[in-house]
Protein backbone atom coordinates (compact mmCIF):
# COMPACT_ATOMS: atom_id res chain seq x y z
CA UNK A 1 0.00 0.00 0.00
CA UNK A 2 1.46 3.32 -1.07
CA UNK A 3 1.75 6.42 1.06
CA UNK A 4 -0.99 8.14 -0.92
CA UNK A 5 -3.38 5.25 -0.25
CA UNK A 6 -2.53 5.29 3.44
CA UNK A 7 -3.18 9.02 3.56
CA UNK A 8 -6.52 8.59 1.77
CA UNK A 9 -7.54 5.77 4.13
CA UNK A 10 -6.60 7.72 7.23
CA UNK A 11 -8.39 10.79 5.93
CA UNK A 12 -11.53 8.76 5.25
CA UNK A 13 -11.45 7.24 8.76
CA UNK A 14 -10.90 10.62 10.35
CA UNK A 15 -13.74 12.14 8.34
CA UNK A 16 -16.02 9.27 9.35
CA UNK A 17 -15.22 9.93 13.01
CA UNK A 18 -15.97 13.63 12.64
CA UNK A 19 -19.24 12.84 10.86
CA UNK A 20 -20.26 10.47 13.67
CA UNK A 21 -19.58 13.17 16.26
CA UNK A 22 -21.59 15.76 14.34
CA UNK A 23 -24.47 13.33 13.78
CA UNK A 24 -24.51 12.52 17.50
CA UNK A 25 -24.67 16.20 18.44
CA UNK A 26 -27.33 17.26 15.92
CA UNK A 27 -30.82 16.80 17.43
CA UNK A 28 -33.08 14.41 15.57
CA UNK A 29 -36.10 15.89 13.76
CA UNK A 30 -39.20 15.88 15.92
CA UNK A 31 -42.27 14.14 14.58
CA UNK A 32 -45.42 16.25 14.50
CA UNK A 33 -47.22 13.74 16.68
CA UNK A 34 -44.48 13.98 19.32
CA UNK A 35 -44.49 17.79 19.20
CA UNK A 36 -48.25 17.89 19.76
CA UNK A 37 -47.99 15.21 22.43
CA UNK A 38 -45.62 17.37 24.46
CA UNK A 39 -48.52 19.73 25.10
CA UNK A 40 -50.44 16.96 26.84
CA UNK A 41 -50.05 16.00 30.51
CA UNK A 42 -48.49 12.63 29.62
CA UNK A 43 -45.67 14.20 27.64
CA UNK A 44 -43.59 14.69 30.78
CA UNK A 45 -43.39 10.98 31.54
CA UNK A 46 -44.17 9.08 28.37
CA UNK A 47 -41.40 7.78 26.14
CA UNK A 48 -41.22 9.24 22.63
CA UNK A 49 -42.51 6.88 19.97
CA UNK A 50 -42.44 6.92 16.20
CA UNK A 51 -45.35 6.55 13.79
CA UNK A 52 -45.33 2.74 14.19
CA UNK A 53 -45.55 2.96 17.98
CA UNK A 54 -42.00 1.73 18.58
CA UNK A 55 -39.98 3.32 21.35
CA UNK A 56 -36.99 5.31 20.14
CA UNK A 57 -33.62 3.50 20.30
CA UNK A 58 -32.15 6.26 22.44
CA UNK A 59 -34.95 5.83 24.95
CA UNK A 60 -34.56 2.04 25.02
CA UNK A 61 -30.84 2.40 25.66
CA UNK A 62 -31.41 4.96 28.39
CA UNK A 63 -34.13 2.84 30.00
CA UNK A 64 -31.84 -0.19 30.08
CA UNK A 65 -28.96 1.83 31.52
CA UNK A 66 -31.22 3.40 34.15
CA UNK A 67 -32.25 -0.06 35.33
CA UNK A 68 -28.82 -1.73 35.30
CA UNK A 69 -26.31 1.02 36.09
CA UNK A 70 -25.95 2.44 39.63
CA UNK A 71 -27.65 5.74 40.38
CA UNK A 72 -24.34 7.35 41.35
CA UNK A 73 -23.34 7.25 37.66
CA UNK A 74 -26.12 9.65 36.71
CA UNK A 75 -26.07 12.01 39.64
CA UNK A 76 -29.04 14.28 40.26
CA UNK A 77 -31.16 14.36 37.07
CA UNK A 78 -32.29 17.83 35.92
CA UNK A 79 -35.97 17.04 36.37
CA UNK A 80 -37.24 20.61 35.89
CA UNK A 81 -35.26 21.14 32.70
CA UNK A 82 -36.44 17.81 31.30
CA UNK A 83 -40.06 18.60 32.18
CA UNK A 84 -39.84 22.03 30.57
CA UNK A 85 -38.48 20.58 27.32
CA UNK A 86 -40.83 17.58 27.37
CA UNK A 87 -38.01 15.01 27.57
CA UNK A 88 -37.76 11.89 29.70
CA UNK A 89 -34.90 10.73 31.86
CA UNK A 90 -34.52 7.64 29.69
CA UNK A 91 -33.96 9.76 26.56
CA UNK A 92 -31.50 11.97 28.43
CA UNK A 93 -29.53 9.00 29.74
CA UNK A 94 -29.50 7.44 26.29
CA UNK A 95 -28.02 10.60 24.77
CA UNK A 96 -25.28 10.59 27.43
CA UNK A 97 -24.34 7.00 26.67
CA UNK A 98 -24.26 7.59 22.91
CA UNK A 99 -22.06 10.66 23.37
CA UNK A 100 -19.66 8.75 25.61
CA UNK A 101 -19.41 5.86 23.14
CA UNK A 102 -18.59 8.31 20.35
CA UNK A 103 -15.90 9.79 22.56
CA UNK A 104 -14.38 6.33 23.08
CA UNK A 105 -14.23 5.67 19.33
CA UNK A 106 -12.81 8.94 18.03
CA UNK A 107 -9.32 8.77 19.54
CA UNK A 108 -8.65 5.12 18.51
CA UNK A 109 -9.69 5.93 14.94
CA UNK A 110 -7.29 8.87 14.83
CA UNK A 111 -4.55 6.74 16.42
CA UNK A 112 -4.98 3.95 13.85
CA UNK A 113 -4.87 6.48 11.03
CA UNK A 114 -1.67 7.96 12.46
CA UNK A 115 -0.06 4.54 12.84
CA UNK A 116 -0.93 3.68 9.24
CA UNK A 117 1.04 6.75 8.20
CA UNK A 118 4.08 5.29 9.92
CA UNK A 119 4.06 7.47 13.06
CA UNK A 120 4.44 5.35 16.21
CA UNK A 121 2.13 6.21 19.10
CA UNK A 122 2.43 4.86 22.66
CA UNK A 123 -0.44 2.68 23.81
CA UNK A 124 -1.16 4.98 26.75
CA UNK A 125 -1.98 7.91 24.45
CA UNK A 126 -5.10 6.42 22.77
CA UNK A 127 -6.22 4.77 26.01
CA UNK A 128 -6.03 7.93 28.12
CA UNK A 129 -7.28 10.06 25.24
CA UNK A 130 -10.32 7.84 24.74
CA UNK A 131 -11.21 7.95 28.43
CA UNK A 132 -10.74 11.70 28.64
CA UNK A 133 -12.74 12.42 25.49
CA UNK A 134 -15.49 10.01 26.60
CA UNK A 135 -15.79 11.81 29.95
CA UNK A 136 -15.91 15.15 28.15
CA UNK A 137 -18.70 14.02 25.83
CA UNK A 138 -20.50 12.35 28.75
CA UNK A 139 -21.24 15.78 30.21
CA UNK A 140 -22.01 17.39 26.85
CA UNK A 141 -25.76 16.50 26.94
CA UNK A 142 -25.98 18.15 30.37
CA UNK A 143 -24.65 21.42 28.98
CA UNK A 144 -26.91 21.21 25.93
CA UNK A 145 -29.96 20.50 28.10
CA UNK A 146 -29.11 23.38 30.43
CA UNK A 147 -28.67 25.77 27.51
CA UNK A 148 -31.91 24.67 25.84
CA UNK A 149 -33.83 25.02 29.11
CA UNK A 150 -32.40 28.50 29.66
CA UNK A 151 -33.51 29.59 26.20
CA UNK A 152 -36.94 28.02 26.72
CA UNK A 153 -37.38 29.87 30.02
CA UNK A 154 -36.40 33.15 28.40
CA UNK A 155 -38.89 32.55 25.61
CA UNK A 156 -41.54 31.63 28.18
CA UNK A 157 -40.94 34.84 30.16
CA UNK A 158 -41.07 36.91 26.98
CA UNK A 159 -44.40 35.36 25.93
CA UNK A 160 -45.74 35.50 29.47
CA UNK A 161 -45.47 39.30 29.39
CA UNK A 162 -47.97 39.41 26.53
CA UNK A 163 -50.13 36.85 28.35
CA UNK A 164 -50.24 39.02 31.47
CA UNK A 165 -51.30 42.03 29.38
CA UNK A 166 -54.14 40.02 27.85
CA UNK A 167 -55.26 38.76 31.26
CA UNK A 168 -55.33 42.34 32.55
CA UNK A 169 -57.50 43.49 29.63
CA UNK A 170 -59.88 40.55 30.03
CA UNK A 171 -60.16 41.18 33.75
CA UNK A 172 -60.82 44.88 33.22
CA UNK A 173 -63.58 43.96 30.74
CA UNK A 174 -65.41 42.13 33.52
CA UNK A 175 -64.35 38.54 32.93
CA UNK A 176 -63.88 36.28 35.92
CA UNK A 177 -60.44 35.03 36.81
CA UNK A 178 -60.85 31.60 35.10
CA UNK A 179 -62.40 33.21 32.01
CA UNK A 180 -59.69 35.86 31.79
CA UNK A 181 -56.90 33.29 32.02
CA UNK A 182 -58.37 30.88 29.47
CA UNK A 183 -59.33 33.63 26.99
CA UNK A 184 -55.85 35.13 27.25
CA UNK A 185 -54.25 31.72 26.66
CA UNK A 186 -56.37 31.19 23.55
CA UNK A 187 -55.14 34.41 21.93
CA UNK A 188 -51.63 33.10 21.20
CA UNK A 189 -50.41 30.29 18.96
CA UNK A 190 -46.91 29.73 20.40
CA UNK A 191 -45.95 26.71 22.49
CA UNK A 192 -46.09 28.85 25.62
CA UNK A 193 -49.73 29.82 25.09
CA UNK A 194 -50.65 26.26 24.12
CA UNK A 195 -49.08 24.91 27.28
CA UNK A 196 -50.81 27.50 29.43
CA UNK A 197 -54.15 26.75 27.77
CA UNK A 198 -53.67 23.00 28.33
CA UNK A 199 -52.93 23.54 32.02
CA UNK A 200 -55.89 25.88 32.50
CA UNK A 201 -58.39 23.67 30.66
CA UNK A 202 -57.33 20.74 32.79
CA UNK A 203 -58.72 22.57 35.83
CA UNK A 204 -62.24 22.20 34.40
CA UNK A 205 -61.98 18.45 35.07
CA UNK A 206 -59.79 18.35 38.17
CA UNK A 207 -61.60 21.07 40.12
CA UNK A 208 -58.38 22.87 40.95
CA UNK A 209 -58.26 26.65 40.97
CA UNK A 210 -56.61 28.05 37.82
CA UNK A 211 -54.14 30.12 39.84
CA UNK A 212 -53.24 27.00 41.80
CA UNK A 213 -52.59 25.12 38.56
CA UNK A 214 -50.39 27.94 37.29
CA UNK A 215 -48.49 28.03 40.58
CA UNK A 216 -47.89 24.26 40.40
CA UNK A 217 -46.73 24.61 36.82
CA UNK A 218 -44.38 27.44 37.75
CA UNK A 219 -42.87 25.48 40.65
CA UNK A 220 -42.61 22.28 38.61
CA UNK A 221 -40.85 23.95 35.68
CA UNK A 222 -38.94 26.60 37.68
CA UNK A 223 -40.79 29.57 36.19
CA UNK A 224 -40.87 32.28 38.88
CA UNK A 225 -42.73 34.77 36.67
CA UNK A 226 -45.60 32.33 36.31
CA UNK A 227 -45.68 31.77 40.06
CA UNK A 228 -45.88 35.53 40.61
CA UNK A 229 -48.80 35.76 38.19
CA UNK A 230 -50.60 33.01 40.10
CA UNK A 231 -50.08 34.90 43.36
CA UNK A 232 -51.49 38.08 41.82
CA UNK A 233 -54.60 36.26 40.60
CA UNK A 234 -55.01 34.52 43.96
CA UNK A 235 -54.78 37.74 45.98
CA UNK A 236 -56.68 39.92 43.52
CA UNK A 237 -60.11 39.02 44.81
CA UNK A 238 -63.07 40.46 42.99
CA UNK A 239 -61.71 43.96 42.46
CA UNK A 240 -61.05 44.06 38.72
CA UNK A 241 -59.40 47.48 38.80
CA UNK A 242 -56.92 46.45 41.47
CA UNK A 243 -56.02 43.26 39.60
CA UNK A 244 -55.68 45.24 36.39
CA UNK A 245 -53.19 47.64 37.97
CA UNK A 246 -51.20 44.80 39.52
CA UNK A 247 -51.05 42.88 36.26
CA UNK A 248 -50.01 45.92 34.24
CA UNK A 249 -47.27 46.68 36.76
CA UNK A 250 -46.08 43.08 36.62
CA UNK A 251 -46.07 43.10 32.80
CA UNK A 252 -44.05 46.34 32.79
CA UNK A 253 -41.54 44.84 35.23
CA UNK A 254 -41.17 41.74 33.01
CA UNK A 255 -40.60 43.88 29.93
CA UNK A 256 -37.97 45.94 31.73
CA UNK A 257 -36.21 42.79 32.92
CA UNK A 258 -36.18 41.38 29.40
CA UNK A 259 -34.88 44.67 28.01
CA UNK A 260 -32.12 44.85 30.61
CA UNK A 261 -31.10 41.29 29.82
CA UNK A 262 -30.89 42.05 26.10
CA UNK A 263 -28.89 45.22 26.76
CA UNK A 264 -26.45 43.32 29.00
CA UNK A 265 -25.94 40.67 26.33
CA UNK A 266 -25.41 43.30 23.66
CA UNK A 267 -22.80 45.04 25.84
CA UNK A 268 -21.07 41.73 26.54
CA UNK A 269 -21.02 40.90 22.84
CA UNK A 270 -19.60 44.34 22.07
CA UNK A 271 -16.84 43.82 24.64
CA UNK A 272 -15.98 40.41 23.23
CA UNK A 273 -15.73 41.71 19.68
CA UNK A 274 -13.60 44.68 20.74
CA UNK A 275 -10.59 42.45 21.47
CA UNK A 276 -10.24 40.86 18.00
CA UNK A 277 -11.00 44.19 16.33
CA UNK A 278 -8.24 45.84 18.35
CA UNK A 279 -5.91 43.02 17.35
CA UNK A 280 -6.70 43.51 13.66
CA UNK A 281 -6.10 47.25 13.96
CA UNK A 282 -2.77 46.61 15.66
CA UNK A 283 -1.69 44.17 12.95
CA UNK A 284 -2.73 46.65 10.26
CA UNK A 285 -0.80 49.44 11.98
CA UNK A 286 2.32 47.29 12.26
CA UNK A 287 2.01 46.32 8.59
CA UNK A 288 1.86 49.97 7.57
CA UNK A 289 4.45 51.37 9.98
CA UNK A 290 7.18 48.71 9.90
CA UNK A 291 8.06 49.07 6.15
CA UNK A 292 8.33 52.85 6.50
CA UNK A 293 10.57 52.53 9.57
CA UNK A 294 12.77 49.99 7.80
CA UNK A 295 13.17 52.33 4.80
CA UNK A 296 14.17 55.16 7.10
CA UNK A 297 16.77 52.98 8.82
Oligomer description: single chain
C-alpha Rg (nearest Å): 27 Å
Taking all residues together, what is the mean pLDDT?
A: 77
Secondary-structure-derived class? mainly alpha
How far apart the termini lie comes to: 56 Å
- Poorly predicted regions are 39-54
Total strand segments: 0
Please give the count of helices.
Answer: 12
Shape annotation: flat
* N-to-C SSE string, H for helix and E for strand: HHHHHHHHHHHH
Strand content: under 5%
Q: Report the biggest beta sheet as strand number plus sense, adding barrel if it closes.
A: none
* Helix fraction bin: over 70%
Main location: membrane
Domain Type II secretion system protein GspF: 167-291
InterPro entries: T2SS_GspF_dom
Keywords: Cell membrane, Membrane, Transmembrane, Transmembrane helix
Q: Could you walk me through the main structural features you see in this protein, from its secondary elements to its overall organization?
A:
This protein has 297 residues and is mostly helical. It has a domain at 153-268. It is built from twelve helices and no strands. It has helices spanning 3-25, 32-37, 57-68, 79-85, 89-116, 124-138, 140-172, 177-186, 191-206, 210-221, 224-235, 240-296. The chain is flat, with a radius of gyration of 27 Å. Mean pLDDT is 77; it is low at 39-54.
